[in-house]
């Protein structure tokens, strides 16, 4: 089966490497690289390093690594006759999921990756660089400071801040070091425009559109839930039409149809980049609630950007969620304003509880990858508040005896990134 990949992967395919690997392992990765041009460079690099490692390792060591997986496949009845290696079908997924040996298979897969990723992580760590994550919550979250970031506060330091006289300058001073009127570049812009910029290395993800107004560099990947409204509404309508008018009932035919629902150029600036357009489509259609809930979109988009693109700078800004409306809350992938005439009301306490969990989810996700474990500074900020939570390596410190101006926080983050 012809697959368009990199020269490195193609050379390994031609060498017969994939035919020597366990069938389920081989098939899964064939499926992952089917759309090679829609993968982020970080994903492509991972697959190249993974298979180069397997190809160059001692044969007996590789056999030992996959021995539990081959045994699990034998118990599940996987054979060359019933398991084509160059495609991954729903029938194959069903065979795995229905097998009474599914647990053994999962354990064998986990065993293999625990050994493989440990080696690959060492390679990544050797090429580490300072990274920055800024997580912002809205001014409307009126919880007292001691009730903010409760799941993470023991891991960092609460830093006293000196808020500006003009509240509108709070985020501009934090992210650009200057008042709003100066239109200075954000930390994301500075990285994207530097000579050490990584491809897809600077992301701004938000519920509203304030940050997208501050960031102007075209090389920053900006995802605004508010600005995506035309695309979101079209997706809701077209998904319903596909299901109802075309009478599609199963994922076998629904999946390919949903693949066609990419953003149009007038719906998102990301539409011009095929990789980002596919990322946006999958984020909105695969995330549970990402079409309907702004904060769920921000959390899911941030987590997937980490998993797939490995950004150097991430600025994520949450908003408020509305109280669930009667009846409309039961409708999936439907425009809530159109589904119910009831007025939308912000749910302040619900938003606070959601965000306390989301802070932890986002922080934990970064910790799963070697790129971030020992060289990432996190700033958790509530707009307008006179303190923030900083988590980072020992050489990233903000703690002072006096309250820090927001511009000083910006300057420290800028120095940390080396931009």
Mean pLDDT over the residues: 91
Strand content: 5-15%
Order of helices and strands: HHHHHHHEEHHEHEHHHHEHHEEEH
Main-sheet strand order equals 4-3-5-1-6-7-2-8
Number of strands: 8
What portion of residues is helical? 40-55%
Number of helices: 17
Low-confidence stretches: none
Biggest sheet overview: 8 strands, mixed
Radius of gyration: 23 Å
Question: Shape from CA axes?
Answer: globular
Question: Can you describe what's shown?
Answer:
This protein has 419 residues and is of the alpha/beta class. Helix content is 47%, strand content 10%. It has 17 helices and eight strands. An eight-stranded mixed β-sheet has the order 4-3-5-1-6-7-2-8, with helices on both faces. Strand 3 (202-206), helix 10 and strand 4 form a beta-alpha-beta unit. The longest helix is centred in the first third of the chain and has 25 residues, at 102-126. The protein is globular and about 70 Å long. The two termini are 45 Å apart. 34% of the residues are buried. The model has no long low-confidence stretch (mean pLDDT 91).
